[in-house]
Structure of Tetratricopeptide repeat protein:
Amino acid sequence: MRAGRWRQKVAVGLMMIGLGAGCEEEPRDHLIEGQRALASKDAELAEQHLEAALAAEPNLFEARRLMVDVEIMRGDYARAEAELNALWQARGFDRQQGLSTAERGARRLMADQYNKLYRAWASDIDRESHPEVFEEVALKALSSKSRDTSVNEMLRAFYRERADRFIDQGDKVSAARELEKIQRLRTFPDTRQEYLDQARRLRREAFFEDARSRFAAEIQPELEASGAYDAENERILLAIEQPVDRRLSPTSEESTIQARAMARQTLIPTLAQLAVSIGGLDAETVDIGAMNVPPGEVEQEQFRVGRYDMVAAFTLESLMEMAFEYAEEQRKEHGEPDAGTRGEPADAPGEDARESAP
């Protein structure tokens, strides 16, 4: 009888030990509970479970990754970014080759996390008070997922608003720069072209306004003094007298066309100099051969054997257009330092690294 009771006590004791061991939660259990807490928007509870999981298994990748979501939920975006960057680098996700299937899957998850982080961060920024910060963060969101429709639209609206604000302030060039940034976004081709066309119009208006002021102050008085400016019609009159081949006949239409073409050619350096002065261009770097010279109109001409004289008229607008077109081509070719394009910080992996995994 005593032996039976002893066996019963031993059995109960073993059962209790087994139940006690079963009550100790594994790291994976805490991970699951942490995921559930995140789904319920409970950052505090999620952090408790994830920290418990990491205490038991410090290198548990998924727990470290989900701790970033806790920081995002709390709005501590800078810390979330730092933790995400550290984890990305620790896992070696910058490399393009040699990743296992599981590692490629983990990298895709983190790529989505980068986009989630920057999208939430950008949404919380006061765009009017901190426009530079908003733009930087929103561009980071696009660097992680360039096809994100909501971020593209967010930036498009931001650049449009900024452009309108600059227009109200009378700063057309800065407005044009904002509109030109839209071409980097994923929008409809017609939308991009619409903004580019508007940006060009704004640049042209600003250029012409400056050119007219410069012309009136620095060039017009001298031209009027020499009788070379028709103020009523805003035309510049250029006279040329030059010898021509004596074999050219004044009575031949073909010879007249040839003599006229040579006279126009001779006028090109003078026209270029005028356009450079009117447009405020750098005379030392201008390539005259790259400028589109307006044809002008022949006001007077006299052709006799061995000599051709001509007075040609060129509108002020045509010379401003000549300078503007050249300035625009140079700007596009060499860039515009003060326009600026913001890149992402070196710490943050780019879109190629984040989205290239199959």
Q: What stands out?
A: The chain is about 65% helix and 10% strand. The two ends are 70 Å apart (CA to CA). Confidence is low (pLDDT under 50) at residues 5-24, 337-348, 351-358. Residues 227-334 form one domain.
